[in-house]
Specification:
The chain is 3% helix and 38% strand. By secondary structure, it is mainly beta. The two termini are 35 Å apart.
Length: 351
């Protein structure tokens, strides 16, 4: 079985939709909170971070490795005995540089402190959150809100759960502070500048949003906004990310496209022609699973088979099939799902 076949099989066994395959994920500071978060920890090395599920590891490419195309050996490669990390792993940074990782295969959530991210090798997680009564069920996406609460997308049971800061200070099996049910197969999460939580639903081919005022209580909630597929506009949507202008970008692993919805299209439910559609060019956008914007406004796409591609801001203005300006292969690793930058770009709304 080839690596690409393995990726497609991994996803197919977890869902009934035809497809090949967080996160833009991230965190932010809300000035209304009663304390200021600590500054970025200098021991966390700068660059682009991701996680592989085959040859499981947390990986970093340093900034100078992102400048040109070619195959790269990651500058940092970290394994951990604390979780399986086989299958599709989401990643997100807290404000102090702690990396949180979803381990889909064994339904766990682990945190690696800044010191553990400073070097390659094996590192035990500082905190391990285990499932209790389905609180974690094949989790694949995660994101921090403005109050530093961690939200997790459970692809296994169709829920989104929230863990508050106090619940994340030590290992255990805490009952989530909030559980939102009724989704099909939530894949990835992202917050917009207003604090609304957006989720891609890979099984139902929809993007849903819950307003900030809806995020305080558990239940079977009706989303405030639902974007439905028009033809192939949403085809097994996976990674999602907001740019600095408030456009929501979505990676469609079902048809190898990336689409963007404008702020006006995000204001109410409907079926829309995407504002921008990026199509494959000579094999690009193969399983576009993870999305993240850098501080220059360029979009980075983590392909499930291990191709990392950069699309500069100038290539994102119109529909087409632009060639990536940088294409990087990660030597020795495959089965990718999420990508994140450290430090988190300040111009972006909670990505």
């Amino acid at each position: 079985m080839t690596n690409t076949d393995r990726i497609r099989f991994t996803v197919a066994r977890q869902a009934t939709f035809v497809a090949a395959f967080t996160i833009a994920v991230g965190c932010g500071y809300d000035s209304t909170t009663p304390y200021s978060p600590p500054g970025p920890n200098p021991s966390v090395q700068d660059g682009l971070w991701t996680s592989s599920g085959s040859n499981p590891a947390i990986l970093r490419l340093e900034p100078n490795q992102l400048l040109t195309s070619g195959n790269r050996t990651p500058a940092t490669a970290i394994s951990t005995p604390s979780a399986n990390l086989f299958d599709l792993n989401g990643i997100a940074f807290d404000v102090d540089g702690t990396m949180w990782v979803t381990s889909q295969h064994d339904s766990m959530l682990v945190a690696l402190g800044p010191a553990s991210l400073a070097r390659s090798g094996a590192a035990a997680a500082a905190i391990v959150i285990s499932s209790t009564d389905g609180s974690l069920s094949a989790p694949t996406g995660l994101a921090f809100d403005k109050q530093h609460r961690l939200w997790v997308a459970n692809s296994g049971n169709g829920t989104i759960v929230r863990f508050d800061p106090a619940q994340l200070r030590s290992s255990g099996s805490p009952v989530p502070a909030v559980t939102i049910s009724g989704l099909g197969q939530p894949a990835a999460l992202a917050f917009d500048a207003a604090g609304s939580l957006w989720v891609s639903d890979a099984r139902r081919n929809k993007i849903a949003s819950f307003g900030e005022d809806q995020l305080a209580a558990s239940g079977f909630l009706a989303p405030r906004v639902v974007l439905s597929a028009l033809a192939a506009s949403l085809a097994s949507p996976a990674g999602i990310a907001f740019d600095a202008d408030g456009n929501l970008w979505v990676g469609n692993i079902g048809n190898q496209t990336i689409v963007a919805f404008s702020p006006a299209q995000l204001a109410a439910s409907g079926t829309f022609v995407p504002h921008v559609v990026l199509s494959s060019n000579a094999g690009s956008l193969n399983i576009p699973a993870g999305l993240a914007f850098d501080s220059d406004g360029s979009l980075w796409v983590m392909g499930g088979a291990g191709a990392l591609e950069k699309f500069p801001r100038t290539a994102l203005n119109a529909t087409g099939a632009p060639a990536p300006s940088v294409r990087i292969g990660l030597t020795g690793y495959v089965l990718f799902w999420s990508v994140a930058f450290w430090p988190t770009p300040e111009s972006l709304p909670l990505n």
